[in-house]
Request: fold
Amino acid sequence: MAAMTSTARPLLNRRLAEFGTTIFAEMSALAVATGSINLGQGFPDTDGPEEVREAAVRALRDGRGNQYPPGPGVPELRTAIAAHQRRRYGLSYDPDTEVLVTAGATEAIAAALLALLEPGDEVVALEPYYDSYAASIALAGGRRVPVTLRPHEGSFRLDLDELRAAVTDRTRLLLINTPHNPTGTVLTRAELAAIAELAVERDLLVVTDEVYEHLVFDDAEHLPLASFPGMRERTVTIGSAGKTFSFTGWKVGWVTAAPALVSAVRAAKQFLTYVSSGPFQYAVAEALALPESYYDDFRRSMQERRDILSAGLTAAGFKVFEPAGTYFVTTDIRPLGEKDGFAFCRALPERAGVVAIPNAVFYDDREAGAPFVRFAFCKREDVLREAAERLRAM
Reply:
């Protein structure tokens, strides 16, 4: 068969041409090739609760979910999601019309943006941002407008004046992430109230990624944006079982929103995966009913791991921005005499046997993110201590 040739346009859709292979694939492959400790990609190295895993096994054996589940998700899970939102936040959602189960939060983000954007619409997003945001906005034909979180007194903070100035007559929606990946920032009540006021004033939709809602530390508090005045009818809230129960491979996420918004997101989602994760949906429904002690223990365990890694990174000479949420620590490499996060992370496996992620991949302004590097602490404590020792010896 003759080789395919073309003198016309490139094969890859030009909206995706700027993205290439994700940094997570590159760095995870480097971890395998060098036998390094992988603190790059954000997945735990142990499974979540045994009773949740057994619930999935039971569903498989009982034949629940082995065939296509309902398009919106199995009723048991949609009911459990609605109960979770009501119990924790006082937000009431109808499981039948205001909850949609997705193939992880990544699909929820993609489906929401594909559904709600027209070509040319502007999306104001907090920078640095999870890389799928930029790709999904591009696929929808939208234009991303970053508002950069900047270092201030040991953490990354949002400039509300900059956010307001970024909104134009072409702005369709705000894309908000709190707790924030990769910086670990948790937006305060005052910041969220200001965002809500802006959205109402300018009649904007909001997509809010809250997958780390149960991972907030110290005095930080997670507050759903949908709970603020005027926001329930304009906010698409995204959640995830992977981050909360440490089963990231199950890919169970969800959307909660007003009926018209859920209907719009479902219209796009049905042509992506249509359905997914049948038996796991039943298991996640049981997981969401775990007692409050589970969430307390989970948060306490992750905070202890944060402290282990943060102390190790500080001892190794990094400037550490201690996160108020998520399971990532952002560091500044300039105290080490470094300034290029890409070069640093690509050399780190050979130098120290540890893999990290350069934050610049999460920025439109690569220079703004150049000196910052992200480490994941959702690993066993002995692994974190070994990684810290390797970094100190570097």
